[in-house]
Amino acid sequence: MSKPRAAEWFDQPEEATGEPGLRFRCTMCGNCCTGPEGYVLVSDEEVVALAKRFEMTPGEFIDRYTHMTTPGRSLVEKQTEHGRDCVFLDRETFPGKAVCGVYEDRPAQCRTWPFWKSVLVSRRSWEMFRRRCPGMGTGPRYSPVQIRVMRGVVEM
Ligand code: SF4
User: Fold this and answer.
1) How many domains does the chain have?
2) Which residues make Cβ contacts (< 8 Å) with residue 152, sequence separation at least 6?
3) Ligand 1 proximity of 134 Cβ (cutoff 6 Å)
4) In a domain? residue 93
């Protein structure tokens, strides 16, 4: 028999609905894709998919859109009035919104936000990150199982 899993803070039922988990819906504010210098890690598989999207070879994509950082290969950033935007952040197509220009092929780091280990460490941490991400705590509910699965995808 497997050992029962220890309860975590997001297993607690939500006051309004009595259901456990966390809510999230991106408002397309772009806050998570800009700011001070950072990184958006890309795996070899993600590079291949992104290169295909731009009809480039993986080598061409790597040269043009990535650089090496301490934690690994990252997409490059561009300096804007908002800060250092991810190179693929699109602030033009929908005025007042910031959308991902490679949404279907975005890296796992972006797909799993805000269900990262560093964010989920405690309710306090979640609330702290919420100050910068207005999508956290709104929208559809993610179950504790979904949250655990996404938390396990990247080391963030
Ligand atoms: S900070 Fe949150 S709401 Fe804003 S773009 Fe990022 S995920 Fe969406």
Assistant:
1) 1
2) none
3) yes
4) yes
